[in-house]
Amino acid sequence: MRDSENDGTVLCDDGLRRPPWAARDPLLREYYDTEWGVPVRDETGLYERIVLEGFQAGLSWATVLRKRPAFREAFAGFVPDVVAAFDEGDRQRLLSDAALIRNAAKIDAAVHNARATVALRAHGGLVDLVWSHRPERTPEPRTMSEVPTVSPESEALARDLKKAGFRFVGPTTMFALMEAVGVVDTHLMDSHRRGCSGIWPR
């Protein structure tokens, strides 16, 4: 979510400052204002975010966000136990659904990651694993160029998830996840959403 036209926040028509990626598109603005960076501490919510971040690889987040209602319907609300039981018939259904991103490897990974999520419960669970990689400090970027795309913690999270059998969980993808679910706060310092997690100070 970078914008070469403006490296800092944009003063929007409502008088609030947002990063360039959240300043124009109404859908992205709503997502930024209400969801991005807010802590997610439930298994279903984290599983959904991992799946969607995986589908986003190589695409824009706006593309995924617009398709999220269709994804939620097709993947049974992202309830891990339900998706873990998907069979070949479900796979073909997903591959033929034009409302989704029809990438066979990513669809297979989504089902595989549901099974890994269920299996991980015997070892503390997905929520504890993700949040155990919260850093001691969070970035304090003033411009988009100061926002990192990877961190030692995201590299460690990617390794641990891969050991647990997860796919499409590289360090960059996992840093994006950590931003989205509040594990780190990369809101620009003068954004009206800085500190919205309640975990990190403004």
TrEMBL record:
Family annotation (InterPro entries): Adenine_glyco, DNA-3mA_glycosylase, DNA_glycosylase
Pfam families: Adenine_glyco
UniProt keywords, alphabetically: Metal-binding, Zinc
Keyword Zinc: yes
Source organism: Corynebacterium frankenforstense DSM 45800
Superkingdom assignment: Bacteria
Binding site for Zn(2+): H187
Signal peptide segment: none
Protein's recorded name: 3-methyladenine DNA glycosylase
Any Gene Ontology biological process: base-excision repair
Example of a GO MF term: DNA-3-methyladenine glycosylase activity
